[in-house]
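WARN no homologs supplied; continuing
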Amino acid sequence: MAGTAPIIVIKKKGGHAGHHGGAWKVAYADFVTAMMALFIVLWLMNSSKQIQEAVGGYFKDPTGTAKQVGSDMVGAGENFVVNKDNMEDLKEQLQQAIKAVPNFDKLKNHIDMTVTNEGLRIELSESEKGTFFDSGSAKISTDGEEILNTLGAELGKLTNTIAMEGHTDSKPYAAGRNYGNWELSSDRANAARRLMQRNGIREDQVTQVRGFADQRLRKKDDPLDSSNRRISLIVQYLSKPAQTPEVAGAEKVAEKVANKVDEKLGENADQKPAEVKADAPGAAAEKTAPAAANKKKD
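OK structure emitted
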């Protein structure tokens, strides 16, 4: 059949398989995160110790309570921080400590501990004949020394500051004396400070010594009552230390890194690699088979 047209067979070679979906994006995100963490570590290795502690504290406790990076005081390993959350624990600890004091049963009704907005207030009130101080004097009694020494040993373990107050009743001194309730209240607070600083608390731990005379009566309806004569020790809450710009910047960097890591981890968990559907090598040729058959018929 000379006039028959030649049969043309078209063969298509199988090209590169289809695209791989978004799997490469996940791998690339992991790589970028790892590189960012590497550069943060290299930066921290050349940073000051304070910055390292600030960044480390953020990752240990992102809520912010670890931003207090400690103190430079000797024996800091034995010190602990008292705040509004655990002030009741300090109260119980002190109550247990003073039970070992001789004559505690006789003194316990004159010792009062109360958690206030200012801190833990410890009040040692006097009896009619005197309990912790000699009557009308700033001389500390034997029982007063025992109690103050025990409290000083316990409070000296804290990083918290302490304020001391002296109070009197409204009974005035004899006329003509150059000494009154103002002097007595201040002298008693200072006497307690000196004794406690010799037996536990640090020189820089006492921030205030106040003498109020009879201006803050315990029993206002009975200004001559002996319980108005007292000294008060206030274990103050720790104020948040002022941050240097360097430390504040370090904490911001740590926060950004932590957020970035959390974001990437969330993406990795939510994003599933797209299914890759690669055609078989002979698939393209099979697709052309019907066309070739049609050509033969024609």
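The first strand starts at residue 111 and ends at 115.
OK
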